[in-house]
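We close this part of the discussion by returning to an individual protein. Part of our work consisted of pairing the sequence of a single chain with a tokenised description of its backbone. What the numbers capture is local backbone geometry rather than side-chain detail. The amino acid sequence and the backbone structure tokens for this protein are reproduced below.
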Amino acid sequence: MTVNVQVFDSINWKVPPDVKLFLLHNNDTLGSGIELNSGHFKLSSETAKSKLILLAEAPFYNNYTDSFSTNGDLSINLDTIYLTPTHILNEITIQSGYKSKIDRDTASFTADSFIIRRFDNAEQLLEKIPGIEITQNKGIRYYGQPINEISIDGIPFSNFDIHALLKLLRGRDVDKLKIYDAKPNLSNNFTEKSNPEKALNIILKEEAKHGYYGKLSAGAGKVDKFHWDNTSNVSSFNDNRSIVGYVTSNNTGNTSSYGESELTEQNTTDAPRGVPTDISAGVHYDRRLNKKLSFNANYRIGYNDQNASTEIVDINFLPTNQITTTTQSYFSSKAISNNATVQTSYQIDSFSSLNLVTNLSLGFFKGNAKNTSSAVNSDYTTVNSSLLYNEYHGNSPQASFSLSYIKNFRNGSNLIFSFSPYWNNTVTNASQSSTLNLMDSNTAQKSAQQKNNHEANSTYVFVSHYKSLLAKHLNLDINWQSNLSKSKSLLQTYDQYADSDNNIKDSLNPIYSSDYKFLSMSNSLSTKISMRRKKYSFQLGTDFNQTLWNQQNAYSAISQTRNFINALPFANINVTIGKTSFASVNYKLQAAQPTLNQIQPLVNNNNPLQIIVGNPDLVQSFSHNVGLNYTASSKNGNRSFNANSNLSIIKNAISFKQTIDEDGRQVSQYYNQNGNYFWNISSTYDISVGAKIRLSAGANGNWARTVTVVNNNDNIASTQSYGSRLSFTYALDTTLNLRFNSDINYSLNNTTLSSGSNNIVNYVTSLNATYSLPFFGLTTGTSVIWNAIQSSIDNDNKRNYIIWNAYIQRCINKSQSLSVKLYAHDLLNQNKGYLVYADNNTQHKETYNSIERYFLVGFIWNFTKR
């Protein structure tokens, strides 16, 4: 007797690798399957039974079982069966010996193809991947697209700090790295983004899934003040359970802890403002309780203390004048954050699963700020001066959970239901005092106010999604989403004054107070047809949505109701060119309703010289988005090229209408404006020369046009920026590592209200080098970063900074797991914060204090038990 059957992946529409099929009867195996071609299997049994069980299994997939009757037939053709991934990921199979492979929206890299040292972490491994960029303020990006999701062996680490997680893993414990398009969120109607975010899956080696390992490091030193940088982490993995945890503490401003990264490549334009103190801790635990039930939980707590002083020079161009404002400010802030996430997954059977995600967070914050400013006009006559001081404190609890049910059918269709409520409640209490001198009107104004702000929101989202297999390569997706949102915004502003007995009294100020209640109800229907063939795939669909909201002002007894109805089309086409080249083009129309803060006709006087007023007559804006992408790589992954471009044209963009009087006071009100667009294009080429040398070159261009109104005159701002990047790395085993980067960025800004162009040229060149003497257990390294900024905005015209960091490290035991280290940051003491840019009718120049020279001496201990 023979049985013929075809097997497919129920999510990715491909043949799962290493599929095994068995015929069973009363727990006895009667036969096994042989793959004939592309997922077609033939099973043979010498014994014919009236009733048999078919068992299908494959790595990383749920087992499939089904019974069928033979009815005496000797040859049986069964319907196609679909295997469901254990963790739904768009993965690809790596051919043996390949360093990397790119398949449409998925790129896979073999970790052992890259040279790393014994105790390097996963982030240091990731830095060697072509197209990866890791920065302190922009996070991790792959060819310009952000990586915001991370999984280990398919298990998601939701709400867990990505940088911290990568530092917890040893680079040599990683088997493969897979980067793919992140799955759309259930609340996003499953539509395609013009520039989708990426997700990263780290696959560990089998030997890394037993025992535990970790790192302890501590460093301290003093020059002008005491500095420290300490970290500890531990990771433990096995087949059914994993635990990772970390604790960090530093006042060096580094996201890379001492002992986790030898050098911090810090661009001075990205240097943190002020001197921060950061303490954070996190733990992740997941466990597969049995074949059906799995559980994972995360908890993070963080503390931040920031103190900074800045000097800002703003030049506002007016139709007949210009006003230059110089502001000295000092601020201090403290914040504590807590976040806990628990996720439970239950595999009901081979076709259906239940998932529950609960998230709780609680934050506390407080701070104060002092601003002193003065403004002059074009003939250097003083127009105003001010002194502003405020203190604030508050808390912000949040809670959410999501319950989803997923049902897959044998024909490849699936059904999803999801319910997701969300609550948040933010309370802020602030006191504000100001002194304002207006020269043109010859007046002086003093005020003292107490501001109590309470914002509460509850949102309920229900989603149902159905995916149907219309034909072998043709799918239909239907998504229905209902949202109910209730918001409350209460702002009470009290003028404070002294009575005849010098007692402080409060009086409610109705001009700067409001009490709004906001109700929003929306329903949306998204339909999508998609086809996937060997050489091409496409997606075509439309979002139909209706939004109805009502706003009530309790102070003025005014009620407003709005009703928005939209049909928003989207499309995506992917084409395979050859075996390793892919191109895609996508289009999406998006609508954005004005926010509650934008439509409230509330006057915000947090800065008496810069008043912001809401506009209840705002309408929704529409954005036409077009994206192009091309990716090519060699078969062995030694060469890769990527180019992408995105264009956004915005109708009814929400912008500002500004009025600046002769005293330099600025009143800005939201309004709708046409004529805005944004366009960018970028390309990157990577090539590896042997196993030691890697070259990378890239270029990018950005163009934008924005329209605002200043004193009833249209101000059209045209912005252009161009950049180039050259990178060279050399690795001689683990002995010598060199990395050279050179970036040149040029920006040009023109406005109809300013007479000239605002030109900024920024050069950033860095050289990193590490050298190890294995026999002596000695490692030394240095980095030199040269940053030059030349600008037509700054009278100094050109700013040059050189940041030179260095370290020396010595292993003091035979296994080289324990070492002492001396680290020096900013040896030339030139790390000064500096920022310059042009925005619409304003030129902005800012200098601020940042972390300067310091030295650390300490130890690093890497421990392992397998």
